[in-house]
Structure formats: structure tokens, C-alpha cells
Amino acid sequence: MAELFEFESRPVVIGECYSPENDATVYLGDRLELLKQLPDGSAALVVTSPPYNIGKSYERTIALDDYVSSQAETIRECVRTLAEDGSLCWQVGNHIAKDSEVVPLDMVLYPICKSLGLKMRNRIVWHFEHGLHCTKRFSGRYETIIWFTKSDNYYFDLDPVRVPQKYPGKREYKGPNVGQLSGNPLGKNPSDVWILPNVKNNHVEKTIHPCQFPVELIERLVLSMTRPGGLVVDPYMGVGSALCAALRHGRRGAGADLVPEYVAATRERITAAFDGTLKTRPLGKPVYVPGPNCKVAKNHWETAADEAGDKSESQESTLF
Ligand SMILES: C[S@@+](CC[C@H](N)C(=O)[O-])C[C@H]1O[C@@H](n2cnc3c(N)ncnc32)[C@H](O)[C@@H]1O
Question: Is any ligand 1 atom within 6 A of the Cβ of residue 213?
């Protein structure tokens, strides 16, 4: 797991309009107005979670076709700003239509990305435990991040985001490598299913925003898809979690939002991210560790492991 960037003692440079000299550009206004300020090929990573057109406090519900057209406009402009070896990550859930029909937004947006020449590298499933309790369908407990690159020659470094091996000391017991470690000592690939808590009321990162990214979700993308100094762009930045992830690791950031309170919160958060005082849930922290008196959880794990026919896994899996 990557070490945090060595924080600088100088004050952070935050601009209201884009300049390559800014550590962060925090634009109050529409995403296209910000994107048009960015030169062709300037962004190493565009990562965002757009409005889902579901009537949240910060959005006006519009016809699905109009929503898709406006997303296409945003994505087209993002692709222009993207470096040849850059990545675009769109984090989405479902749009719920008036008749309660579920419309998975990644399916709707995939053809737009393809038509702009992007190539998909992963469809990452982000699983979390907290959300609405549905009565007429199963409660939604995952969203996706669709990751595209502009070319085949894209930047990707797995090492800073490896996670601990399940059996770190395990060695080959036969064949030409007998006695050698069977897994990578730096850790294993985190896979395309990420289990990270979403930001609800008791989360250390909670702000005034109703649906902010956990910073660690974006840190994985920043660390694996950008080099130090690279520009990370979030066209729908909310309270700036993506910019915080960028600044915590020596990258630059640029984002836009229409809501002045979110922009003000972003400025505060990135100032703290830059000087190392922003409180975040640490990268790699286990999701859930039942205490010794937690009988329900213990029984749950043991039952699950018994059903899987592997008693030894039950001890491991309490650490998820
Ligand atoms: C899902 S939230 C993003 C939250 C963000 N990921 C975070 O961690 O705080 C979507 C954001 O898009 C903003 N937004 C909606 N329409 C916009 C537009 N046309 N231009 C810029 N931002 C917009 C909303 O105000 C909202 O904060």
C-alpha cells in the first residue's frame, strides 16, 4: 500500500479558474464551463459521480433522454481533456424511473463511451452495507465504476494499491519454484469487487453533502492510474473528495459544482488534504471486525464457513 505523500509546508494554491500552476482548481459553476478551460490532453484521470437524475436535493429531474444527452456532452468534453495514456472512471448506480423501473446507468452510458473511442478496462463493483431499505425489490447495496482508457497505451501501476495476501507466507510445495513464496510479497490485486463503507452519518469523512465519495475509493484510482503531479478532474465534484484524494498523493486537482456551499466545503477539505490534516478512513482498514462478545456475527461467519465446507476460512474471514 502506498505511503502518503510527504506533505508540503507551503500553502496550497487554489484557483477559481484553471491554471497549470494551481494545486487545485475549484470552479463554482457548470461542469462544461470548467472543462472548456482545460487544454487538450491535460488530464491524467477524470473521475466522477454524476447526478443520477433521481431527484436529489442538488438536481432537477429531467426526461431520461435529456439526461443521457447531457451526460454525453460531459463525457465528450472529458475525453478531449484526457491524455493519450489517461483514464476515465464514471461511478454510477441506478436511475429509478417514475414507474419504479430500475435503469442501470452504467449500461446506459457504456455506448456513449464506446462511441467516443474509449475502451473499457474494468467494471468495478463497489459494495457497501448502508442504504435505503426497499420493500418491492431487494435493497441496492452496490454501485459500479466503469473504467475506460483513451488508448491501449494507458498508465496503470498495480503495486501502490495491492492488498494483503490471504496467506502471505504460503510457499510452492512442488514444481520448479518449490519453497518460494507463491504470492506476490507486495500483496495481491484488489480485484474488481471493492468492499468499502459508503459515507453515512457516523463516517469520519461525513460533510453536508448527501452522497459524497469515500476518499479511499478514489485513492485507489489515483494511485494506480496517475503519476505524481498528474491532473485529476472531477466535473461534478460535490465536496471535492476526488480532489482531496489527488492532493493527498501529490497530484493536482480540478473540479466544478453548482452549489456554493459544496464549493466552500471543497476549499476547506482540500486545504486540509494538502497539509495532511484531513480526517479520512485509512486506506486498507478492514471493513468489519466483530468483537469477542459479538455472538451474532460469530455465528453468522461460522455458519457461512461451514456451509462453504471450509472451517479454516472462518477464522480468516472475520477480517474481511
Ligand atoms: C453525486 S454528487 C458528487 C459528489 C462527489 N463525488 C463528492 O464526493 O462530494 C453530484 C454533484 O454534481 C453537482 N452538479 C449537478 N449538476 C452539475 C453541473 N451541471 N455542473 C457541475 N456540477 C453539477 C451536484 O451539485 C452534486 O454535488
Answer: yes
**93 CB within 6 A, ligand 1:** no
Choice from 257, 267, 280, 281 to test ligand 1 binding pocket (greatest atom count within 8 A of CB): 257
Rounded Cα distance, 228 and 251, in Å: 5
On whether the CB atoms of residues 86 and 155 are closer than 8 A, the answer is: yes
Contact 224 CB / ligand 1 (< 6 Å): no
pLDDT 10s digits, 104-144: 999 999 999 999 999 999 999 999 998 999 999 999 999 99
For the chain, the structural domain boundaries read 14-289, 292-320
Residues with Cβ within 8 Å of 210's Cβ and at least 6 positions away in sequence, in order, are 56, 57, 58
- Compute, in angstroms, the gap from residue 257 CA to the centroid of ligand 1: 5
Kindly state if the Cβ of 128 falls inside 6 Å of ligand 1.
Answer: no
Sequential DSSP letters for 73-133: HHHHHHHHHEEEEEEEEEEE-EEE-TT--EEEHHHHHHHHHHHTT-EEEEEEEEE-S-S--
Distance 179 CA to ligand 1 centre (A): 52
Q: What is the pLDDT of residues 161-172, one digit of tens each?
A: 999 998 888 899
C-alpha separations of 217 from 40, 207, 214 in Å: 27, 16, 6
pLDDT digits (tens, 9 = 90+) for 66-109: 999 999 999 999 999 999 999 999 999 999 888 889 999 999 99
- The fourth-level CATH superfamily of domain 14-289 is Vaccinia Virus protein VP39 (3.40.50.150)
Nearest CA to ligand 1 atom 3: 238
